[in-house]
Structure formats: C-alpha cells, structure tokens
C-alpha cells in the first residue's frame, strides 16, 4: 500500500507541480478530494470507481476496480459524443500505455497526455480497442470547471509594514503569499489562522515556510508558501493573519472565501497521539512531550526524521537565553530497531573533538568523565517518525548535569540533524534561532502539539560540483567557509558536515586532479589557534574520505594511511604540519538556516563575508608518487568531513595517459625480451 501510494505520488508529482502530494490512505468520506465528476458507469468486467478532477489535467480515481480480463483494454478518453474508436490512450498510474491489468479497489491519479485538459474531453472510459467495447465510462459535463489554484485578495495593511501581493490558494492546505513583507519587530508574531468574522487570539499557529514555530523574522518582498498544520484545510479556517499573540494584535490579514474550487492537498496526515500530558511543537517535524512525577521527569521526543538523523533536546547553557554552549542535552536516535537517548555535554559549538588533548564540543557525558543519566524507556520508528522516551531524575547525581527546575520556567535548546559515520551528531539542519522558555512543572498540563503531515519536502538538488583540472595550477589556496546546508557539502559529498568545509581556490570542496611525479603546494589558511574547538584546521591528505585524524582512537588511526600533513613526535604522537592563519568566509547577520534557498554556490558565496587573519599561510608540499592510490582526500586534522577528493592521475589528458600506458607496456615488453 505504502509503495503504491509512493508511486501514485510520483505520478501526481509529475502531473501538477503545485500539489503537495498525496495519500488518501484513510478512507474518510468527508475528506476533500477535488471536484467530483461521478461514479464510473459499469457495463462489463466489473469496472467501477469514483472519479474526481484534481486539477485541470489530472483525474483521481478511488476504489477503482476492473477484472483485467479484456484483451486489448486501455484507459481511453476523447472529445466525441460517446466513447468510441475516436480517442486516445491515457497512460496508467505509472505513466505506461500497456494493456490494463486487474485492479481491485485502487486509488490513483491519471494525467491526460500531451498537456490535454479535462475540459477538452467529453468522456473517460475503460475501453477495449480490439472489440471496440466500452467496459465503463464517466462523462465530463459541458462547462466543467476543474479545480485550480485560486487567487484571492492581498493581506490588509494594518501595521508593522505587513503587505503582500494577491494571495494564491494553491490547494486545500497550501497558501502562497507572494512578495510578503513584515518588519519583524512584533513581540510574538506568527502566521495565524482561525474561525470567526475577524482575526482573534483564538487561533492556531501555522509553521513558517521552513516548518519553524518561532516568531516571524523580517521579510522584504519574499515569496512565502505555508502549509496548514495537521488536518486543517482552507475549508476549516476563516482567516489568515500575521498576528501578535502577546499584544493580541492583527498586523495584516485576509478572509479566506468559502467554497474555493482548489485542488485537494494530497499531503497525508500522520496521527501521533502523545502519551505524556504536556507537549510542545518545536518544529513542524518535531515535538517534545513530558511528565514530571516525584523526583523524575519522563521525556518523549517525536520527530519526523530520516533513519540516520538524530533528535536533540536539553536544557540551555544559559539562564537567560537558549544557548548551545554549556547545555545539557539528550541526543536520541535509532539504529535499526534499537533506540538511544544519550546524555551529552555541550562545551563548544563543534562536534566532539580534542582541543589540546581535552575533549571539547558536543560530547557524551561519559567521554568527559560524567555519567549517562538518561534511562531509555521505549523507542519505535513508525510512519517515518522516531518516538523515543527516556527518563531521568530532576536532580541527577552527576554534578556535571543541569537540574530540571520545577519552580520556574527554563530555557531549552533543540535540534535535528544527521548522525555521522560514528553515530555522533553532525551539524544540525534544524535548530531554533530564538529563545524558548518552557514551564516544565505546569499546574495544568498543556498539549499544543499537532499531527504530523507527510513530508512533502522536495529532495535537494545539490549545487554543481566543481573540479580543478588544470595542469598549470600547482598551488592551491585552502581556506574555510560554511558547508552550505543540504545543497552544499552534504549534497555534494553525500557525507555529513560539521558546519564548516574547505574552500579551495574559493570553491566549496572542488575535486582536484594531481599528476603523479609533479609537486604541488597547498597554502593553508585553516586557523592556527589550537585552543579553538571549531576553527583550528591543519590540512591533511589521507586515503579515506573523513579525516579528523586527531579525534580517532589509536586503532582507527592505524587503519588510515596519511599521505601528507602529519608527522609523529618522538613519543609517537601525531602532529600536524600544515597550519596557517584563519581565512574564513562567514555568514554576516544572515540566518544560515536558509542556505538551502541559494540556487548555486556562486550566489551563496556572494552572501558571505570573507575575513582573513594576517600572516603567511602554512605550506603543505606534496608530490604524489606511484604508491598513492588513484583517489585520496584532503581533510582537516581536527574534525571529520570537511574536505573531498583528489584524483591522482598519471597524466592530465587522455592521449598523454595512453602514451604513458604505452611506454609502460614498452618497458615491460623490453624487460620480458631481456629475460628471454
Ligand atoms: C540536588 O542535589 C545536590 C546534591 O546531589 C544538592 O546539593 C542540591 O541541594 C539538590 N537540589 C535540590 C533542588 O534538591
Ligand atoms: C561538562 O563540561 C563542563 C566543562 O568541561 C564541566 O564543567 C561539566 O562538569 C561537564 N558535565 C558533565 C556531565 O560531564
Ligand atoms: C567566493 O568568494 C571569495 C571571496 O569573496 C572569492 O575570492 C571567490 O572567488 C568566490 N568563489 C566563487 C566560486 O565565486
Ligand atoms: C611516495 O609518497 C609517500 C607519501 O607521500 C612517501 O611516504 C614515500 O616516501 C614516497 N615514495 C617514494 C618512492 O618517493
Ligand atoms: C591505462 O592503463 C590502466 C590499467 O593499467 C587502465 O585502467 C587505464 O584506463 C589506462 N588508461 C588509458 C587512458 O587507456
């Protein structure tokens, strides 16, 4: 079933770009499925089902049945008065034009071929071409008006600079707000929807276009698309407002008209019932619920995450804001069916690594000599949601842990991101920018969580990878910059990121081509302050893609072949050789959570601020020789996953390579001759 739905989704996806797809998995008759066309007339072979128009080009069939016994039977449509040989094949739900097989109560969509519109046909049939026999059909009425996105009014301009162009209802859950503007200075302002004649504080927060539940930032003529949460649709709300919940003021709003003829949202709602009384939605994809009982707190983290992603939640490192440094956090994840809720100590905004021999960064308590104070209760993954429940004492016996206060609210932190190859959290993809204060010990429990909706996020097309393939370049300038979200380092290399990456000659992790026998220099500007937990990056070259040599165990180190950048002290300790001042491209004041919005690295790079410390770069001189494998990697000595590939070639051009091969062969032949 899930598979069928996925495929069905793919077909809708091809059909209509706006629709945010799929899943009428639960057969609820009240559910909006588009404009009803009718029930298929049954003539032969048990053809039956209901037909809806989803948009101008696409028909939705529900409970479609056909016994599959026709010899030469197709989905068939035409503009003549009745089904007959004048018509065309409508490809099946997989886009194929094969003879139809059997269907039993199937739900799927069909898109008319060649951009034909539903209004251009008079009937749709299950038709046998050989016998010219109609097995079932439905008529398209004259003047049929298929669902389409509907343009309504603009946001009223009331205050805080709120404005937009005409809002478009893309489908029953999706609202496009073109050229949205808001000065960002409200106290506690959100996209807010509700019932009644005008906006009021009795409403529901709508996640922003990135799924965040945080107060809205400033917007300057940005095209914003939001999705109504849980089961809400445009038919169940009367207005949309930019609303300040604290001051109860409406900064700008629209009334959503009744009876809109819009495409159905095919986003599937995923029910998740919290078992603990308090619940807060941290992000569209993430909620935390909890209960305090006696000296203990039970916490449940539920997140719509990939199998290799973690959910983090904990107490802030500061008493006055939400802050990662100093935080006491839990990192929860699943490996197959096994769940983990590990207790972490965050001493720096960096993956756990050694700083002058001491572990620093996001490290397990146990690694720092503390203890894991979490007791895992249950862990399941269902419908793409990880649900992990753990318990701990409010005041743990580990003096390094923070105490969960019951007499006052407390600042918390959270994040979602990927686990690296060692099951350690890498740089987070989702995390809050604003402070989040939670009252844990509430007089009355409060649950403000909503249902999850199927993830309709488009997959990310990574930025174009770059190569430096130029025989004249013998010197590479290596600097540091942000890894560029899921389109950047993660997308290009397929590896997780620690947040920063190498920029070689101003390019994000280009693939380099070095020729055996030639000498190259890397001029390294990776930072030379060994006290820095995240910006001390000597360059190394190894035969494996991760690097981060310094943080590896002795056993792991022994498996790595270091080709350049590390020397060993007399006591056998590794020491980096290519260290230089820091040249860093950085986000100025821009929110790095929107890095995925940049279409190319070039545009992204232009949004960064480039700062360089004074001083000469460290030099790493390398001369690849025949013992070097064909692919090696440049990386950081201190942290994993910052660099990428070096192709080691025998020649820069193909003809040169053939010559080289030839000469090798000649030598071998010569040797053989001599032996003879
Ligand atoms: C928490 O425990 C420590 C010792 O384990 C104790 O000194 C402290 O008073 C306790 N705090 C509360 C609020 O009970
Ligand atoms: C976390 O690290 C800080 C700084 O090193 C230390 O003071 C604290 O005790 C640590 N906590 C735990 C649980 O190890
Ligand atoms: C990125 O920006 C830096 C600094 O402004 C510049 O030197 C570099 O050439 C840029 N890279 C690309 C690919 O545009
Ligand atoms: C080949 O390169 C490796 C790594 O740089 C080096 O250790 C080795 O001495 C070189 N071998 C020769 C024959 O130059
Ligand atoms: C050179 O020979 C190697 C095997 O010895 C082969 O893999 C490679 O493709 C050859 N290169 C060319 C350009 O023919």
Automatic annotation (TrEMBL):
Signal peptide feature range = 1-25
Q: Name one Pfam family in it.
A: DM13
Annotated DM13 domain residues: 34-141, 150-257
Q: Which CDD domains match?
A: DOMON_DOH
User: Domain DOMON spans what residues?
Assistant: 284-417
**Which keywords appear in this protein's UniProt record, sorted alphabetically?**
Repeat, Signal
InterPro entries linked: DM13_domain, DOH_DOMON, DOMON_domain, Spindle_Org/Thrombomodulin
Can you name this protein? Protein Skeletor
């Amino acid at each position: 079933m899930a598979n069928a739905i996925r495929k069905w989704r793919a077909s809708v996806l091809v059909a209509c770009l706006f629709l945010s797809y799929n899943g009428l998995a639960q057969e609820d008759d009240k559910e909006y499925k588009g404009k009803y066309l009718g029930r298929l007339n049954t003539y032969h072979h048990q053809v039956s089902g209901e037909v809806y128009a989803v948009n101008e080009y696409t028909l939705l069939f529900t409970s479609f049945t056909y016994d599959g016994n026709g010899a030469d039977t197709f989905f068939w449509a035409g503009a003549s008065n009745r089904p007959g040989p004048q018509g065309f094949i409508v490809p099946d739900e997989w886009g194929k034009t094969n003879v139809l097989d059997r269907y039993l109560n199937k739900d799927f969509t069909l898109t008319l071929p060649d951009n034909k519109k539903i209004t251009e046909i008079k009937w749709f049939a299950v038709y046998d071409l050989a016998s010219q026999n109609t097995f079932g059909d439905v008529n398209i009425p004259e003047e049929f008006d298929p669902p389409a996105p509907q343009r309504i009014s603009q946001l009223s301009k009331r205050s805080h600079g709120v404005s937009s162009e005409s809002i478009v209802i893309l489908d029953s859950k999706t609202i496009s707000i073109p050229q949205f503007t808001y000065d960002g200075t409200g106290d506690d302002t959100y996209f807010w929807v509700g019932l009644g004649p005008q906006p009021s504080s009795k409403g529901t927060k709508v996640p922003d276009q990135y799924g965040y539940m945080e107060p809205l930032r400033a917007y300057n003529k940005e095209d914003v698309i939001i999705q109504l949460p849980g089961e809400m649709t445009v038919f169940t709300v009367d207005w949309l407002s930019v609303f300040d919940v604290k001051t109860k003021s409406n900064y700008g709003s629209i009334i959503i008209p009744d009876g809109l003829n819009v495409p159905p949202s095919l986003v599937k709602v995923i029910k998740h019932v919290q078992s603990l009384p308090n619940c807060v939605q941290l992000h569209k994809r993430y909620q935390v619920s909890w209960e305090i009982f006696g000296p203990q707190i039970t916490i449940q983290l539920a997140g719509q995450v990939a199998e290799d992603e973690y959910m983090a939640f904990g107490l802030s490192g500061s008493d006055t804001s939400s802050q990662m440094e100093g935080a006491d956090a839990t990192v929860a994840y699943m490996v197959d069916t096994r769940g983990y809720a590990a207790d972490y100590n965050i001493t720096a905004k960096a993956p756990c690594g050694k700083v002058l021999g001491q572990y620093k960064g996001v490290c397990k308590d146990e690694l720092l000599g503390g203890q894991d104070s979490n007791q895992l209760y249950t862990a399941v993954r269902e419908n793409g949601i990880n649900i992990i429940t753990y318990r701990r004492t409010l005041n743990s016996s580990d003096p390094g842990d923070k105490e969960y206060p019951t007499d006052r609210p407390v600042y918390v932190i959270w994040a979602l991101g990927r686990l690296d190859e060692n099951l350690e959290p890498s740089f987070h993809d989702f995390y809050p920018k604003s402070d989040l204060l939670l009252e844990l010990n509430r007089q009355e429990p409060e649950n403000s969580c909503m249902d999850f909706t199927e993830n309709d996020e488009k997959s990310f097309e990574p930025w174009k990878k770059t190569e430096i393939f130029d025989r004249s370049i013998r010197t590479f300038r290596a600097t540091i910059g942000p890894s560029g979200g899921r389109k950047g380092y993660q997308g290009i290399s397929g590896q997780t990121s620690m947040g920063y990456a190498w920029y070689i000659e101003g390019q994000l992790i280009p693939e380099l081509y070095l020729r055996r026998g030639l000498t190259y220099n890397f001029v390294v500007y990776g930072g030379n302050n060994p006290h820095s937990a995240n910006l001390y990056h000597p360059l190394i070259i190894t035969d494996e893609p991760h690097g981060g040599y310094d943080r590896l165990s002795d056993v792991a180190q022994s498996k790595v072949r270091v080709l350049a950048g590390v020397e060993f002290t007399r006591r056998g300790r590794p020491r980096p050789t290519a260290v230089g001042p820091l040249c860093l491209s950085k986000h100025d004041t821009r929110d790095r959570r929107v890095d995925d919005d940049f279409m190319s690295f070039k545009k992204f790079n232009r949004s960064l601020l480039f700062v360089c410390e004074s001083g000469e770069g460290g030099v790493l001189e390398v001369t690849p020789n025949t013992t070097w494998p064909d692919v090696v990697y440049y990386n950081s000595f201190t942290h994993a996953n910052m660099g990428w590939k070096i192709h080691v070639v025998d020649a820069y051009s193909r003809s040169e390579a053939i010559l080289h091969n030839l000469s090798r062969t000649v030598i071998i032949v010569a040797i053989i001759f001599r032996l003879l």
